[in-house]
Amino acid sequence: MDDRHTAGAGRNHFSAFPLDCKGYHVPRGEESRTLWPRPLAQKWTVMLFLGTCLLFCARMAMPICAVSMAASFHWSKIDSGLVLGGFFWGYCFTQILGGHASDKVGGERVLFLSAASWSLITAVTPLLAHLGSNTLALMTFARFLMGLTQGVFFPSLASLCSHRVLEGERGFLMSAINSGANLGTLMAGGMGSLLLEGYGWESMFYCIGLLAGLWALVVWLCLLKGVEVTQKQKDFKDPQWSLSRKRWLSLFRKAPVWAMMFAHMCLCSSMYTLLSWLPTYFKESFPHATGWVYNVVPWAVAIPSALAGGYFSDFLINRGYGVSLVRKIMQFFAMGVSNMFIIFLSGDVSFPSAVTLISAAIGLSTFSSGGVTVNVQDLTPSCAGALFGFMNMMGAFMGLVFVSVSGYLIEVTLSWAKVFSLITMVNVTGLGVFLVFGDARRVDLQDCSPLVQI
């Protein structure tokens, strides 16, 4: 099958209306796919960027408000860990389901329903907190629902891009959306610092819920209402999409596959732990420090760092370095060099030093976008989406475990050094496995050659 496309292929087949989702068809022997016209693709790119930004704002609302809520409801660190970890329980369950539903009804519809749901959950969180006496259970349930509704986002986005965007234009869309994630975390920190001091923790949830609801409303009115999305479902009898148990077992026997998955799980567990507990760490370790500094600076650093990492990765490959070597170099920066900065946090550091160390660690961790994160496309391009969904599900589960374990360690040992040591150990282990067993050569051809179309 000839899968080669150019960025301009099929553009002459546009409808004259910029919001016509009927798009155009790309022939060349493959299944007809309905693609966005360029004006519509640009509008969706902007909206998905904003949607990802708001998604991470909503996701970070609870970690940022955790200290204030713990003081209000008399939570221990273990209690806070249970609430924060509730998100990952829900997030684990809908990874694969989100991609499948998007293939059936269209990624646009799934993303809209997802955003409408988690915006509502965010807005009513303060009401739930004051609804009954068992606030801990209600907040854990609210976070579970948040994870459940947000879990479909990135798998749906992957399905959406594969159906609506030309191959030559997917890179820009994905990089823009990843930048939205960092910007959302940054915005949540900035908004949280201002709203917590002036209006209380409830205002954080109300504000983000309102903005996300407005985003969903704009998407519906401007991009979806009155437009019939007719996306042809993939034929799952097609060998390219056949994911039998035999094939899964065959792939999991490949050392590069499980090395990639293990490294991804380790990275997710360490990053989710940092995301969940950093606001509490700074609040308790430096109670008189300005909140917006530690809630904003690390994520402001992460945005240019992510772009620089992507450019560096492509630069090395274009200069003739092997893809496998480049993946390992990028992962070494993401989990090895960044670890060196985390180690210093275990000692006695000043507030400026702590912010600098955290910013450097988080900034370098974004280099994983040129490492493990895209390694799945090197190893198994014929089923990269399904395998990435499985990886992300396992990463979310490990995040759940480590967020809860970290809360237990802080409560029992009264030491943040234990948490940073745990993160360091996990990163070193995951990086070591990937450096030894990782690779970038295709492994879905051997023993599965009838399942792959060329």
Automatic annotation (TrEMBL):
Its main location: membrane. InterPro entries: MFS, MFS_dom, MFS_Na/Anion_cotransporter, MFS_trans_sf, SLC17A9-like. GO terms for cellular component: chromaffin granule membrane; lysosomal membrane. It comes from the Eukaryota. The keyword Transmembrane helix applies. It is a multi-pass membrane protein. It catalyses: ATP(in) = ATP(out); ADP(in) = ADP(out); GTP(in) = GTP(out). CDD domains: MFS_SLC17A9_like (cd17380). One of its GO terms (molecular function) is purine nucleotide uniporter activity. The chain crosses the membrane at residues 46-75, 81-98, 110-129, 141-160, 172-191, 203-224, 255-277, 297-317, 329-347, 353-374, 386-410, 416-437. Keywords: Cytoplasmic vesicle, Lysosome, Membrane, Transmembrane, Transmembrane helix, Transport. It is found in: Cytoplasmic vesicle, Secretory vesicle, Chromaffin granule membrane; Lysosome membrane. Residues 44-442 form the Major facilitator superfamily (MFS) profile domain. Pfam families: MFS_1. One of its GO terms (biological process) is ATP export. PANTHER family: SOLUTE CARRIER FAMILY 17, VOLTAGE-GATED PURINE NUCLEOTIDE UNIPORTER SLC17A9. Belongs to the major facilitator superfamily. Sodium/anion cotransporter family. Voltage-gated ATP nucleotide uniporter that can also transport the purine nucleotides ADP and GTP. Uses the membrane potential as the driving force to control ATP accumulation in lysosomes and secretory vesicles. By controlling ATP storage in lysosomes, regulates ATP-dependent proteins of these organelles. Also indirectly regulates the exocytosis of ATP through its import into lysosomes in astrocytes and secretory vesicles such as adrenal chromaffin granules, mucin granules and synaptic vesicles. This is Voltage-gated purine nucleotide uniporter SLC17A9. It comes from Eleginops maclovinus.
